[in-house]
């Protein structure tokens, strides 16, 4: 349930620098949302920006989608844990050894470790995109396969589309976290996302966390857009 203790909306801060990001963040309430820092903003503004978000009371999902050899990736998730982020991620297609190394490396952080999740199939991809990289299974089947691998490696959950949430909750269990981008209120532009759902549909389907970027950050009134989504899902 979306509560002040566990806000399930994660606002994707896809901005080119910390000034516009902080201008939005300073209007937001940590009881209503968490924040996601991705590749563009982190590459520009780095750990210092994450510290500024923490100082404002927000929990941060560091969405750098690490994908490398086990030694490199596990060192990267440890660096994220040192930064004190709430959640960090890797690509499940990095495989069992890579994911297990990351999980093992985070054990030394004890109960303060970040949630470790794995990206399955990007929400911008459809069947044709998968075929283009040699995967002839449907997105649903590929997501399911990678989610099973991720759970067997002891990670906390996956990034997937909300469309896969009902099957994944049934297959992987209620505790396995589903973090779902590709969230689009009915009036919002789809953009480059293919596997989408509305906020309400996504939570009803079994999403644990809704990652929402442009429908909030590119809205004429970002605060009003977030408030509308918050009111739609509060209590779900
Ligand atoms: O499969 C994925 C994994 C990550 N993302 C990220 O989520 C946000 C979505 O932003 P919107 O503007 O709401 O489309 C963005 O930061 C992506 O990097 C994803 O979309 N799909």
From TrEMBL:
Native source species: Marinobacter panjinensis
UniProt keyword annotation of Lyase present: yes
Job description of the protein: Catalyzes the decarboxylation of orotidine 5'-monophosphate (OMP) to uridine 5'-monophosphate (UMP).
InterPro entries xrefs: Aldolase_TIM (IPR013785), OMPdecase (IPR014732), OMPdecase_AS (IPR018089), OMPdecase_bac (IPR047596), OMPdeCOase_dom (IPR001754), RibuloseP-bd_barrel (IPR011060)
Organism lineage: Bacteria, Pseudomonadati, Pseudomonadota, Gammaproteobacteria, Pseudomonadales
Family, as annotated: Belongs to the OMP decarboxylase family. Type 1 subfamily.
Domain Orotidine 5'-phosphate decarboxylase: 8-229
Encoding gene, per UniProt annotation: pyrF
GO cellular component, one term: cytosol
One biological process term in Gene Ontology: 'de novo' UMP biosynthetic process
Superkingdom of origin: Bacteria
Signal peptide location: none
EC number(s) per entry: 4.1.1.23
NCBIfam families reported in the protein's UniProt record: PRK00230.1 (NF001273), pyrF (TIGR01740)
Subunit structure: Homodimer.
Active site, UniProt feature: 63, 65, 68
GO molecular function, one term: orotidine-5'-phosphate decarboxylase activity
The protein's name in its UniProt record: Orotidine 5'-phosphate decarboxylase
Top-level enzyme category: lyase
Keyword field: Decarboxylase, Lyase, Pyrimidine biosynthesis
Pathway: Pyrimidine metabolism; UMP biosynthesis via de novo pathway; UMP from orotate: step 2/2
Catalytic activity line of the entry: orotidine 5'-phosphate + H(+) = UMP + CO2
PROSITE patterns: OMPDECASE
Parts of the chain that traverse the membrane: none
Binding-site positions, substrate: 14, 36, 63-72, 123, 184, 193, 213-214
């Amino acid at each position: 349930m979306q509560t002040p203790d566990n806000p399930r909306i994660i606002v994707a801060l896809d901005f080119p620098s910390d000034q516009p990001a902080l201008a939005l963040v300073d209007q937001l309430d940590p009881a209503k949302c968490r924040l996601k820092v991705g590749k563009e903003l982190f590459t520009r503004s780095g750990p210092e920006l994450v510290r500024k978000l923490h100082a404002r009371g927000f929990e941060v999902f560091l969405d750098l989608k690490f994908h490398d050899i086990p030694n490199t990736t596990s060192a990267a998730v440890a660096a994220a844990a040192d930064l004190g982020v709430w959640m960090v991620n890797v690509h499940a297609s990095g495989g069992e050894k890579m994911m297990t190394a990351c999980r093992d490396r985070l054990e030394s952080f004890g109960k303060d470790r970040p949630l470790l999740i794995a990206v399955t199939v990007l929400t911008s991809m459809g069947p044709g995109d998968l075929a283009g990289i040699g995967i002839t299974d449907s997105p649903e089947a590929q997501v399911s396969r990678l989610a099973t691998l991720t759970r067997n490696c002891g990670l906390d959950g996956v990034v997937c589309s909300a469309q896969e949430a009902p099957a994944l909750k049934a297959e992987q269990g209620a505790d396995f976290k589903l973090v779902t981008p590709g969230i689009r209120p009915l009036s919002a532009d789809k953009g480059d996302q293919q596997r989408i759902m509305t906020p309400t549909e996504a939570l009803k389907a079994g999403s644990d966390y809704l990652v929402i970027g442009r429908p909030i950050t590119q809205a004429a009134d970002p605060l009003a857009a977030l408030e509308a989504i918050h009111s739609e899902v509060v209590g779900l």
